[in-house]
Amino acid sequence: MSTYSSTDTSVVHPLTPLGWNHRVERAFDAVASASAHPLLPARVASSRRGGAVVRLPREAAADYSPAVTKAAQADPSTAPCSGDWVAVRRSGDVWLVEAVLERSGSLVRQGVAKDSHDQVLAANIDAVLICEAADQGPNVGRLERFLSLAWASGATPVVAVTKAEMAGDRLPEVLELVESVTMGADVYAVSAHTGLGLEELSARFLPGATWVLLGTSGAGKSSLVNAVAGRSLMDTGEIRQDRRGRHTTTHRQLLRLPGGALVLDIPGVRRIDVPGAEEGVDRAFADVAGLAEQCRFRDCRHDAEPGCAVNAAVDEGELDVRRLERWNRLRREAEWNRSRGDARLRTERRKQWKAAERQARENAWRKRGR
Question: Can you say which residues are annotated as belonging to the binding site for Zn(2+)?
């Protein structure tokens, strides 16, 4: 059972500043009660191959137990990552991560490797701050991908149009373009340099809430966090001559803002493959998905079918045909990625069945040999 008692509600849990809540407590107690070792809860600040930096709440390095290592080798998405809550124990002079607790609100990128395993970018998040630099676009196709990923996580997406001062007179046009594809996500024009929009955005960072920053390198994520915090929490880098940012964040890390909110910073990403589930894509394209529900036929492909509400909206100028094309592209990608994942699961099941059959034959041979 948990070392920290929750019976006295007047006592603040030492991990509360790191986002500890009743859901996490229940998950930890379930693991701790089944363990033969005394366990402590901790949150992963950053991870590396074979180990992680955890908060107890003090910071400590921890190795993975054999069980956690074996599970991660079979499925890398189960390995501890930034934001994870874990159960740890002391073994001699080192800490061991004995188990990863059940996740909530995980930002998952579809696996691009041959094994098709998904990559968990951040776990147990409440909100995703998508940073899109005003001087680099905006790139609506990339923004739609980021939004699909954020909606699929179960967290609330918020869009920050960073470096707003560099857009000049184009800022209203940039904001209008961004807002045309955000569908339910709040948009803030911010500038770490001038302070524009920082007060409004900062009000969203509530104590105990965990945010993850998502955006390309050079989108101004580090500068924005430093401006919100009022001090330097993250390194900032220069923009290369090709206007692509340098990777100032090379590993995932958990930061705490002065107001009590938690921020997970991850390296800038240029390629995002949407998850196999279509829910994230349809939330990001809620306008198109809503029209699709009005089509005469449920299996409408929105091509040349009669009674297609989507094509009617395009013909009437209510829907940009390029947005429709991007929706179809991401839905096809999600379907393909889901099929890859299903194929991987089928392959793994076949391996498990074959291993079970071999074990059964070996057991039978042993019995006959007795």
Answer: 295, 300, 302, 308
